[in-house]
Amino acid sequence: MSRTAPIRSDFIDRIRVMLTMLVILHHTSIMYGGDGGWYLRFPHEDKLSKVLLTMMCAVDQSFFMGMFFLLAGYFTPASLLRKGMGGFVRDRLVRLGIPLLFFSFILGPFTIALADTRGGSGIWQRWAQLTQEGEINPGPLWFAGALLIFSAVYLLIHPLITGIGKTWSERSLSHRNLLAMMAVWGCGAFLLRLWVPTGQEIAYLQIGFFSSYILLFFGGAAAAEQRLLEKITPALAKPWLVVSILTIPTLMVYAILSGALRGEKFDVHGGWTLPALFYAYWEAFVGTGIMLMLLWRTRIATAPSALWQVIAPQCFGAFIVHPPVVVAVGLCVQPLQLYPLAMFALASSASVAISFSIAASLRRLPLLRHIL
């Protein structure tokens, strides 16, 4: 394994902060009309809000969780090198396994109980009922479960991944190779969704999105050998950012031309259909441009605020606690009955601030600081 495996870089920590905030905004947007599953939804008839929030969710989904996997894969070789096999396994079980179990058996059922108060249920009674019934709800912590699986696979094949990484260089960061990656991403997504459409789960995992997750995690681990994520140039990133921006509206245009506004079926979730094929590749082209832009722009940013260094350590904690926070904030602001987009803006900004504040408080506890 390379002795030049990457250490944690400041600009990558800033990306992690942005991605974590985006996760919170994403789930809040679903609460107010975006497409996706969430603990609590407030139905309304405003079509503009639904369209805009659904498009936001689609763009988010094209890259934000995939980029989390990319960064996780990128730092995995260094972690294994530094800690050794035993230390690596213990660290993964503590930092991923404990939060996964805690959320699945305690915080997840609590979030369900909190959401059910809108229907008149008492939160503590409902929580006790769910706990007694053995309710298991990993919620967004499916990510930790997937990382445990990926880490276990990496332990088995890391010599192969290292060997691939040694064949890569800065010249590997080419438009042709990116096109090849997107072709694999899109094809894999389409084929997986023939089996498990997006929105459906197997073992709490939305397998339909795992084409990019697998590709990006293990690609990130291979890229660590030559520290390639820290060598993205504007010549590489800018053209694909333009492609991404131009691609984003095409999904909506395709839906409109297919009669979606007239009630015609436009199902992109899976199946042997042109919309499903289009969406699989749309996702790859949109997500790639955004990820390249983030890797390039955050790295060259001059004099970033010191606030980033304060916020960055709270990311994982904020990720863990945000579901009940988003639901609680949604319940608190709902009596205001503002326009849905205004409700989204208010609830999402409050949820971000509260989630990061709670995470900062929890990390002051010595035992939790090691986990979070």
UniProtKB/TrEMBL annotation:
<dbReference type="InterPro" id="IPR002656">
    <property type="entry name" value="Acyl_transf_3_dom"/>
</dbReference>
<keyword id="KW-0472">Membrane</keyword>
<keyword id="KW-1133">Transmembrane helix</keyword>
<dbReference type="Pfam" id="PF01757">
    <property type="entry name" value="Acyl_transf_3"/>
</dbReference>
<feature type="transmembrane region" description="Helical">
    <location>
        <begin position="277"/>
        <end position="296"/>
    </location>
</feature>
<feature type="transmembrane region" description="Helical">
    <location>
        <begin position="12"/>
        <end position="32"/>
    </location>
</feature>
<feature type="transmembrane region" description="Helical">
    <location>
        <begin position="202"/>
        <end position="224"/>
    </location>
</feature>
<feature type="transmembrane region" description="Helical">
    <location>
        <begin position="342"/>
        <end position="362"/>
    </location>
</feature>
<feature type="transmembrane region" description="Helical">
    <location>
        <begin position="316"/>
        <end position="336"/>
    </location>
</feature>
<feature type="transmembrane region" description="Helical">
    <location>
        <begin position="96"/>
        <end position="115"/>
    </location>
</feature>
<dbReference type="InterPro" id="IPR050623">
    <property type="entry name" value="Glucan_succinyl_AcylTrfase"/>
</dbReference>
<feature type="transmembrane region" description="Helical">
    <location>
        <begin position="236"/>
        <end position="257"/>
    </location>
</feature>
<protein>
    <recommendedName>
        <fullName>Acyltransferase 3 domain-containing protein</fullName>
    </recommendedName>
</protein>
<feature type="transmembrane region" description="Helical">
    <location>
        <begin position="139"/>
        <end position="157"/>
    </location>
</feature>
<feature type="transmembrane region" description="Helical">
    <location>
        <begin position="178"/>
        <end position="196"/>
    </location>
</feature>
<feature type="domain" description="Acyltransferase 3">
    <location>
        <begin position="11"/>
        <end position="359"/>
    </location>
</feature>
<feature type="transmembrane region" description="Helical">
    <location>
        <begin position="52"/>
        <end position="75"/>
    </location>
</feature>
<keyword id="KW-0812">Transmembrane</keyword>
